Amino acid sequence: MIQLARRRWSIAPIMAAVALALLVALPFVASPYLQGLAVVALLYATVAASWDITLGYTGLFNLAHIAFFGVGAYTSGILSVTFGVDPWLGVLAGAVGATATAAIVYLPVSRLRGIYVALITFAFTQLALRFVLSARELTGGQSGFTRIPPLRIGDVALVGGSPWSIYLAGGLLVLTVVVLRAFVRSDHGTALIALRDGELYAISRGISVLNIRLLAFVVSAVFTGAAGAVYTHYLGALTPGVLDFSLVTLLLSMVLVGGAATIYGPAAAALVLGVSIEWLGPIGPLRFVIVSLLVLLTVILFPSGVWGAIGRLQGEVRRRSRGNSQT
Amino acid sequence: MLRGASIAVGDGESVGLFGPNGHGKTTLLRSISGLLRPWAGSIRFQDRDITGWSPRQIVEAGLIHVPQANTMFPRMTVLENLTLGAYSPRARPHRRRNLERVFDLFPRLADRRTQTCQTLSGGERQMAALGVGLMGEPTMLMLDEPTLGLAPLMKEVLARAITEIATSGVTLLMVDQDINLLLEVCQREYLLEGGETSLELQEGERIREEQVLEMYFGSAEASGGTMDDA
Amino acid sequence: MTLETAFAILLSATISGSLYAMMASGLSLVWGTLGVFNFAHGSLLLLAAYVAWTVGKVGGPAVQGPLAIAVMLAAMAVFGFLLYLTTVRPLIGRSNAELAVIISTISAMIIIRNVVQFAWGPLPKQVPALGSSSITVFGTVISSHQIVVILIGPLLLLGIAAFLKFARVGLAVRSVEQNPDAALLVGVNPQFIYALVFAASAVLAAIAGYLLAGIQFLTPDFGGDPLLKAFIVIVLGGLNSLLGAFVAAYVVGLIEALAIFFLGLFWAPVILFVVIIVVLLVRPQGLLGGAR
Question: Which structural domains are found in chain C, ordered by start?
Answer without folding.
Answer: 3-282 (1.10.3470)
